[in-house]
Design goal:
about 35% strand; about 200 residues; about 20% helix; 11 strands; alpha+beta; 5-stranded mixed β-sheet; 4 helices; 3-stranded antiparallel β-sheet
Length: about 200
């Protein structure tokens, strides 16, 4: 499963948004190396100024000293959950998106060991949890949000897993990964009728 995902993501040409002047961020879509791989997600602290109390990937804004956004994603993942950069096998970037706070976000897919010491940064992260890839591939959405963006309508799923609500930009990135890396065929551009896959 992961070998095919690696190949598909490496062959993917990500869409780059040209947004001069916008602040940039990098996030890490960390997938565990195991027969039934899982994706590592965080619940952000209620004390944060943006996306407080929301589910997100480890990551954050680019610092002036960061050599690129992949470095940003790895640095932030280390700061937020204790994931050492050398444990991450970076596969490649996915499409960049602009958050509702006007930040250009680029996700990087990385494969990580099934077991490593998670050390949540209490000032930023309330909880770290894992969701099986199979959960997202089955697209068990709780609801669908319509977002008008770049001149077209996007129908973005909202998921609930063990009480965690996974929606917005995070859900959009997850669907893109499911479609690109795992050939899930989840549509984003037609209204959801309960079973429409490409």
């Amino acid at each position: 499963m992961l070998d095919e995902m690696r190949m598909r993501v490496m062959q993917h040409t990500p869409r780059q948004i040209v947004a001069p002047g916008l602040p940039e961020a990098g996030v890490l879509i960390a997938i565990t190396e195991q027969p039934q791989p899982e994706i590592i997600l965080t619940l952000r602290s209620q004390r944060l100024s943006t996306h407080s109390g929301e589910v997100a990937f480890p990551g954050g804004r680019r610092d002036p000293g960061d050599v690129d956004l992949c470095y940003t994603a790895l640095r932030e993942a280390h700061e937020e959950i204790g994931l050492l950069p050398e444990l991450v096998d970076v596969v490649g970037p996915m499409d960049s998106l602009v958050s509702r706070f006007g930040i250009k976000v680029t996700p990087y897919v990385g494969v990580v060991p099934d077991q490593f010491e998670i050390i949540p940064n209490a000032s930023e992260i309330e909880e770290v949890f894992r969701v099986p890839v199979e959960f997202f591939m089955s697209d068990p959405r709780e609801m669908t949000h319509r977002i008008d963006y770049e001149g077209r309508s996007w129908y973005v799923p909202s998921y609930r897993f063990n009480g965690f609500k996974i929606w917005g930009l995070t859900a959009l990135m997850l669907v893109e990964l499911m479609n690109t890396g795992f050939d899930a065929g989840i549509t984003l551009h037609t209204p959801y009728d309960g079973h429409n896959k490409n």
